[in-house]
Amino acid sequence: MGMHLGERAGGSQTHSSALEFFSVDTYSVGSLMSRVYPRVRGSTSTSGFTLIEIMVVIIILGILVGLIVPRLMEKPEKARRVKAQLQIESISMALKEYKLDNGDYPTTEQGMQALVEKPAIGKIPKKYPEKGYLSKIPKDPWENDYIYISPGEHDDFDLISYGADGEEGGEGKNVDVQSWEIE
């Protein structure tokens, strides 16, 4: 394998016992060098990422963010619209129960407050439950009051939430939620 210090190229050996201690194995030196300097002896092992790999990952993440974030941004607004529809349906059920007990819906003047406490104006109901029909009138998901009109323009009564802007009409997140449009 390796050549001892006391050896000659011809193969004769001089003072082999004294110099055996100083023998050098060329394989061991190469092995040691490859551990200290990884590129020695043809080693191609590298650690880390190349610039191209990093750029590809950043581009993929950018595409994913571009696709997912807009959808997540729409979800809260859609949830508010669904909540408004459910609240309108719940108030509508209480109004229908009021009509069953009293023969008429509360007037616009009496308002939805007639569902919480017995009205003191207009036609006074005769069969008003002790706890009312609702414990309280909810605000719409945008913290605005619902609009109640009775008799309504579209039905026996109309319930409306004016959406995020709190004003009649609008598009997108400002579109109104109306009782006659709920399926």
Give the helices and strands as they follow along the chain. HHHEEE
Class by SSE composition: mainly alpha
Instruction: State Rg.
Output: 42 Å
Q: Briefly note the CATH topology name of one domain.
A: Glycoprotein, Type 4 Pilin
What does this structure look like?
The chain is mainly alpha-helical and 183 residues long. It has a domain at 83-181: 2-Layer Sandwich (Glycoprotein, Type 4 Pilin), CATH 3.30.700. The protein has three helices and three strands, in the order H-H-H-E-E-E.
Tags for this entry?
three-stranded antiparallel β-sheet, disordered N terminus, elongated, mainly alpha, Glycoprotein, Type 4 Pilin, 3 strands, 3 helices, 37% helix, 183 residues
Describe the structure concisely for a colleague.
The protein is mainly alpha-helical.
